[in-house]
Backbone:
């Protein structure tokens, strides 16, 4: 069965510190991978996506993610976290146009000063 | 310019009532979706339409009925609301390929 696992429910990092959010997927075909961010009371904003090609993808707000097929992972990173990055982060997987995304359960990021 | 909009943003209603949530996208996408986010923030697909045709219908109660009058609109009607229907409902649209753009959500509270 297709699934997405985000092992960390809640992470706290200090402002200015680096961040890595983990995502593992189980998918039969070549996956399309996404990271979305949800700020409190807001909708989901697409941070970045991987379809094919370079396995290191750059997104908005200084985020990047690396696709590792051998580890079935698509971890999200940011070199220096800002207080405004505090939010819920969702990893998602899909396959082709018109099909729904399968989401992980999300990781809550808190940023301490 | 709002890409995917939903109305209302908040909806408080009593058990047994019937309510609708509207969604509109101005992106020209062919495919639209409804997702439900529960109290634990878990997101799950409910329905998907492509060019007004239903293509995904997950296991949801028959009380939920989507309607797509045209490819820019996908509305969600819920009959006989129950306490367990309280959630945030997100509309999304998608071009080809697959990336999806989400609306701001509608927080439904059933009392």
Residues:
């Amino acid at each position: 069965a297709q699934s997405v696992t985000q092992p960390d429910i809640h992470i706290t990092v200090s402002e200015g510190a680096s961040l890595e959010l983990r995502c593992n997927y189980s998918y039969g075909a070549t996956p399309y991978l996404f990271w979305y961010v949800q700020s409190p009371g807001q909708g989901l904003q697409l941070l970045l996506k991987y379809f094919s090609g370079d396995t290191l993808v750059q997104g908005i707000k200084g985020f990047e993610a690396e696709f590792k097929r051998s580890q079935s992972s698509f971890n999200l990173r940011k070199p220096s976290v800002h207080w405004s990055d505090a939010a819920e982060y969702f990893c998602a997987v899909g396959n082709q146009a018109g099909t729904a995304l399968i989401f992980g359960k999300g990781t809550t990021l808190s940023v301490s000063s | 310019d709002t890409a995917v909009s939903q109305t209302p943003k908040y909806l408080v209603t009593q058990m047994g009532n019937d309510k609708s949530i509207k969604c509109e996208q101005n992106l020209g996408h062919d495919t639209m979706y409804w997702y439900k986010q529960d109290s634990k923030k878990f997101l799950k697909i409910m329905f998907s339409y492509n060019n007004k045709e239903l293509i995904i219908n997950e296991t949801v109660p028959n009380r939920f009925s989507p309607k797509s009058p045209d490819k820019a609109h996908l509305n969600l009607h819920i009959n006989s609301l129950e306490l367990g229907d309280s959630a945030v409902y997100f509309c999304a649209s998608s071009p080809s390929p697959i990336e999806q753009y989400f609306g701001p959500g509608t927080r439904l509270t059933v009392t």
In short: Chain A touches chain B at residues 32, 34, 36, 38, 42-46, 49, 51, 88, 90, 94-101, 103, 105-106 (CB under 8 Å).
